[in-house]
Design goal:
The chain has six helices and 14 strands. By secondary structure, it is an alpha+beta fold. Strands 2-5-1-6 form a four-stranded antiparallel sheet, covered by helices on one side. It has a four-stranded mixed sheet with strand order 7-10-9-8, with helices on one face.
Length: about 270
């Protein structure tokens, strides 16, 4: 079940006072706990109501009112969406909210997301049900001939992503099924890059196949960022197409890194759809 933890606004948030370094770190640590437990869906802070507006519809016509709005306690300062097995579990996570926030004086509302089952057999659900066939995410899995640990550490350094898993064969029930020299090799690694995951594993020689016909695609907002990533990945690798501007991109290049993985790195032109 999916729940939203709604952090109610207060006088400070409505004045636009942003969290200080200690609270930012505490919130990051809290989010890290949620991520490692596999329950975090998303989280965001909201600007004060004076920077927003409210739409009220009367007989289909919208009336727009600019903020700020009164009744601060009814407004939101931010939210965290989590996925748990029950309301009780959501409550337990909410109880761990960092006490530095609001000096320990905050209000969180917890609300469950509605699901298709809540609506019974309504005929109007056809399009919604079709959308539920969408996977939660599309991830990319890479095979390595024993260099997974080194490669994933390198990719984490290049991209700034969070290396959230690095599980060796010795830590799995498969330990007795691989040669002794492979116990420290990686059965599963996961690099979280803005919610997208690059997953990797080591494969024995009879199972390993060098990547062909596919490339990891990195999309950057800034040309300098893309160029720097390209240069790092190209170290001891082979450049297929040097990083340069094209008719559709401020910068684009292709390479095969020293681990045999193929990459495309791009900073699209402003007119190019992402």
């Amino acid at each position: 079940m999916r729940f939203m933890l709604m952090r109610k606004a207060d006088a400070q948030t409505e004045r636009g006072i942003l969290p200080g370094p200690e609270l930012l770190e505490a919130m990051a640590d809290y989010n890290e706990q949620l991520i490692r437990a596999g329950v975090l869906v998303t989280c965001d802070g909201l600007s004060p109501s004076e920077e927003g507006c409210r739409l009220e519809f009367h007989q289909g016509t919208a009336r727009v009112t600019r903020g700020p709005f009164p009744a601060t306690e009814e407004l939101l300062a931010g939210y965290t969406v989590i996925e748990t097995d029950s309301l009780e579990q959501a409550i337990e996570w909410a109880k761990r909210w960092p006490p530095l926030d609001g000096n320990g004086n905050v209000v969180l509302d917890i609300r469950r997301y509605l699901t298709m089952e809540d609506f019974g057999g309504s005929l109007g659900l056809d399009k919604h049900i079709a959308q539920t066939r969408l996977p939660r995410a599309v991830q990319l899995h890479l095979n390595f001939p024993g260099s997974c640990r080194e490669a994933m550490d390198f990719y984490a350094d290049v991209t700034g992503g969070h290396l959230e898993a690095m599980l060796s064969f010795s830590e799995t029930p498969m330990a007795n099924e691989v040669p002794p020299g492979w116990h420290d090799k990686i059965a599963h690694a996961s690099l979280n890059i803005r919610g997208h995951r690059l997953i990797g594993a080591d494969m024995l020689s009879e199972c390993y196949q060098r990547p062909q016909g596919a490339r990891v695609f990195l999309d950057y907002e800034q040309t300098e960022q893309a160029a720097a990533a390209f240069e790092r990945l190209a170290e001891e690798g082979q450049i297929t197409m040097p990083f340069a501007s094209t008719f559709w991109a401020k910068g684009f290049g292709m390479l095969t890194d020293r681990f045999g993985v193929n990459w495309m790195v791009v900073c699209p032109a402003d007119h190019c759809p992402r």
